[in-house]
Write a structure and sequence with these properties.
It is built from 19 helices and nine strands. It has about 550 residues and is α/β, with parallel strands linked by helices. It has a single domain, classed as Methylmalonyl-CoA mutase (TIM Barrel). It has a nine-stranded parallel beta sheet. The longest helix has 23 residues, at about 280-300. About 50% of the residues lie in helices and about 10% in strands. It starts with a helix and ends in a 6-residue tail after the last helix.
Length: about 550
């Protein structure tokens, strides 16, 4: 028996003998058993240095001593005008980056007057039908100085084209634009469901964005490979790491097969993770993901330097918010945001406490932003790099999570990669979600205000916007765009999109041209449906 094993066994025995415990077993979301006490496990020399591969301790040498993370609150409300007001309010409150939520029709490639959009226009985000909506969305916002993130996937290239078109019509150079487009369609097939086209043409569309950004938008992140939605669907922390990094490797392979040079696009890849309930598991998850990505990129593609660097955005866990006793969510969000900071995030969205009831109010959004600002200004956790590095518990969890995530990734590889393992990943997520729900319903997983410490207070009923009137106004604006554009130029632009979709040239230049002729998002998406068909899950 090794000295480490002997120390662990003897210490555990002493610890358990000293006092009784509340439960027979303590474990994380990934099923990792948590011991009562941890001791020396990882020699400090094995941790490496921040800013150096494998980046366990952070992707930059000075981390937050040099610059705080980007405080990027996610927002999207009905119309572009309303959302613009919230953006300017948050920027005036000290937010340092924008993050756009789009409504379901926009995500699914449907204009607001499409019959299938009925009842959904503007409900879960902003409705964007044309470049005119995009102009209203960013009215009086300096696109050459503000960083913008757009959470959009199946229609991501169109929204990026609109953003570029707005900048050019304002005289702003492409080189000045900073931000991220999520553009992660694989996770839609796995966890979220807002896909449109079959897998193969969808992946071609993703790599079109890689190619375009490498040539035209040097400061733009061409993808945000999302574990957040995988986690929100019910995945464990280990599954979140494995499925996200597996998707990332698939995108890298597709880009290389396209003929792109690794160092042209890999440094602009970014990731998006959840900050979930179990504080230390989340800190360890971020550290494990960085280390694992650096290793995988080096082993599989011979990458080094910036091409191995995993930079990520974090959002606190929407699925952890409760409608019961909603003010408790303030505490949840603060603790989750702190785990993201201690885990080394590059940007962060903290949820509003009322999001389990409705779209967040201005007051809740400001308090969520202030939560980040308090962490950055008042706690001292930003004064040193990786303050939990070397913690016996954190290092043990980091190792264990990497090991379990590697097992999932090996299984995905054995099935032929993420594009072939969609059903496997879906099944694993569903099983994990079911297990968690059973734990909550049985009381094994305690949720304050839900199954413990309950009271009889009735949650406030949120004020519901007049969505039918909102949709009518949006459809009227859309009709005005169609009536006033050059119909012949729009038709030619759509014909060109269909032609390119049938070959292998990059679609982005044609998309930029089309949106500037006022072709709509739905018209472009239908043209691509004609060329590629639609995905039907098995």
């Amino acid at each position: 028996m090794s000295e480490r094993s002997r120390w662990e066994r003897e210490t555990r025995d002493r610890f358990v003998a000293a006092r009784g415990e509340r439960r027979d077993r303590f474990s994380t979301s990934s099923g990792i058993e948590v011991d009562g006490l941890y001791g020396p496990e990882t020699p400090p020399a094995a941790l490496g240095h921040p800013g150096e591969s494998p980046f366990t301790r952070g992707v930059y040498p000075t981390m937050y001593r040099g610059r705080l993370w980007t405080m990027r609150q996610y927002a999207g409300f009905g119309t572009a005008g309303e959302t613009n007001e919230r953006f300017r309010y948050l920027l005036a409150s000290g937010q340092t980056g924008l993050s756009v939520a789009f409504d379901l029709p926009t995500q699914m490639g449907l204009d607001s007057d499409d019959p299938r959009a009925s009842g959904e226009v503007g409900r879960v985000g902003v409705a964007i039908d044309s470049i005119e909506d995009m102009h209203r969305l960013f009215d009086r916002i300096p696109l050459d100085t503000v960083s913008t993130s757009m959470t959009i996937n199946a229609t991501a290239p169109i929204l990026l084209a609109m953003y570029v078109g707005v900048a050019e019509e304002r005289g702003i150079a492409r080189e000045a634009l900073r931000g991220t487009v999520q553009n992660d369609v694989l996770k839609e097939f796995i966890a979220r469901g807002t896909y449109i086209y079959p897998v193969e043409p969808s992946l071609r569309y993703v790599t079109d964005v890689f190619d375009f950004c490498a040539d035209e938008l040097p400061r733009w992140n061409s993808i945000s490979i999302s574990g957040y939605h995988i986690r929100e669907a019910g995945a464990t922390a280990a599954q979140e790491i494995a499925f996200t990094l597996g998707n990332g490797l698939e995108y890298v392979r597709r880009a290389l097969d396209r003929g792109l040079e690794l160092d042209r696009f890999a440094p602009r890849l970014s990731f998006f993770f959840s900050a979930d309930r179990l504080f230390f598991e989340e800190v360890a998850k971020f550290r494990a993901a960085r280390r694992m990505w650096a290793r995988l990129m080096r082993e599989e593609f011979g990458a080094d330097g910036d091409s191995c660097r995993l930079r990520f955005h974090t959002q606190t866990a929407g699925s952890s918010l409760t409608a019961q006793q909603p003010l408790n969510n303030v505490v949840r969000v603060a603790i989750q945001a702190l785990s993201a900071v201690l885990g080394g995030t590059q940007s962060l969205h903290s949820n509003g406490f009322d999001e389990a009831l409705s779209l967040p109010t201005a007051e809740a959004a400001r308090l969520a932003l202030r939560t980040q600002q308090v962490i950055g200004a008042e706690t001292g956790v930003t004064d040193t790099v990786d303050p939990l590095g070397g913690s016996y518990f954190v290092e043990a969890l980091t190792d264990e999570l990497e090991g379990r995530a590697s097992e999932y990734l090996d299984r995905i590889t054995g099935l032929g990669g993420p594009a072939e393992a969609i059903e496997y990943m879906r099944e694993q997520i569903h099983e994990a979600a079911y297990a968690h729900q059973q734990a909550v319903e049985s009381g094994r997983a305690e949720v304050v205000g839900v199954n413990v410490h309950r009271d009889e207070d009735v949650p406030p009923v949120p004020e519901i916007p007049d969505f039918p009137a909102l949709a009518d106004a949006q459809r009227a604006r859309l009709e005005s765009v169609r009536s006033n554009r050059d119909a012949t130029a729009a038709a030619r632009a759509l014909a060109e999109i269909r032609r390119i979709a049938g070959g292998d040239a990059n679609l982005l230049p044609a998309l930029v041209h089309a949106v500037k002729t006022r072709v709509t998002l739905g018209e472009i998406s239908h043209a691509l449906r004609d060329a590629w068909g639609e995905y039907r899950p098995s």
